[in-house]
Amino acid sequence: xxxxxxxxxxxxxxxxxxxxxxxxxxxxxxxxxxxxxxxxxxxxxxxxxxxxxxxxxxxxxxxxxxxxxxxxxxxxxxxxxxxxxxxxxxxxxxxxxxxxxxxxxxxxxxxxxxxxxxxxxxxxxxxxxxxxxxxxxxxxxxxxxxxxxxxxxxxxxxxxxxxxxxxxxxxxxxxxxxxxxxxxxxxxxxxxxxxxxxxxxxxxxxxxxxxxxxxxxxxxxxxxxxxxxxxxxxxxxxxxxxxxxxxxxxxxxxxxxxxxxxxxxxxxxxxxxxxxxxxxxxxxxxxxxxxxxxxxxxxxxxxxxxxxxxxxxxxxxxxxxxxxxxxxxxxxxxxxxxxxxxxxxxxxxxxxxxxxxxxxxxxxxxxxxxxxxxxxxxxxxxxxxxxxxxxxxxxxxxxxxxxxxxxxxxxxxxxxxxxxxxxxxxxxxxxxxxxxxxxxxxxxxxxxxxxxxxxxxxxxxxxxxxxxxxxxxxxx
Length: 476
Prior knowledge:
The chain is mainly alpha-helical. The protein has helices at 2-9, 12-15, 18-47, 66-104, 108-135, 137-142, 148-163, 166-180, 184-207, 217-242, 257-289, 295-329, 333-360, 362-367, 374-387, 391-406, 410-436, 438-441, 444-466, and strands at 56-57, 63-64.
């Protein structure tokens, strides 16, 4: 009887059958991530319809619409947005790993301290974003080769996003706190609310509906901020009222540099892992602008579309990390490997949808971005088909990277990402661009992913030998 009572009080990450557990925790995240991806796509759909009387032409004399330049501007701002996301998600990953392990070890004080330090670190992250927004927005956009309308649109959008980014940091951390205790169903509420508000406000602020001022690209930025603020308020409420395993209170809180160290042992590699994407995007934008004026818009559209297919996989990975971390803390190798193997099977099924869509219906995907420029379809269709090959390898690298992070070895994912995006992808894109122009550049993505697949496998065997085999087998 006592053992049954003990089991009933155990967190579900330690007792629920792993397949049911992973599905129950990941499904809400997949849905909320899909909605977030949808509003990212909708954001670009609306700005693609911005129209002005100003006439801008490419080097061949073809007119470039304001909508195409607006999409390009969002892409030029994206490297800094990746840094914001990197600081937020990377720190949250570190907090999630430390907190989930503390839950498994039944150390409540450590759980509460970790959560409060996570929120404090978000404030420090915001200060970095504010400095970038105030002093460096224009330089970042210009540094990628942008001029004229692209430069003005990009500077406006990036300045607003950076200076008003405090809410996105808190949103990311508060959602991760809910996920770390297994409450993924609750974590989707702020995500969905923020996404819906963003979608509603986009056309109102971009086109000046219902008496609101017509703000254009700036309206897209403000709509994003409004959604993030709403999500933060709801996330804070849910953590205070419905997450009893974490106590958020300032009374008695003291900064513990050892706790910060523990968070960033996992979080710092995760931050750098995400930030590498910023350098890659900056480099790709620069390479593409030198080849074709509309190529950056194609690259931006690709990123918007691929996020829609990758987001369910990221939701799966976000659920996988705390489950593995919890059972690592509880010393249960059998549950760790069972949930990891099931995640690989599930992940391949999810990512196959993206692969098939990119290969067989690229025209349909591109048609939703109606800028009026034929170049978007002419360049975009072959681009999507070539890039789509990398889906066949990426799912494994993402989920195995989640295993590395949960076991406290996020540096493996960092090394892999550095090699894939900086050592292989950018040099390959530059060389292929010189050899065959923009049409050949897109092959750099599957080339880099094949390399990543090989390196990930090497690191898996290494971590299996050094850590996983030494964890007690435990019960399923």
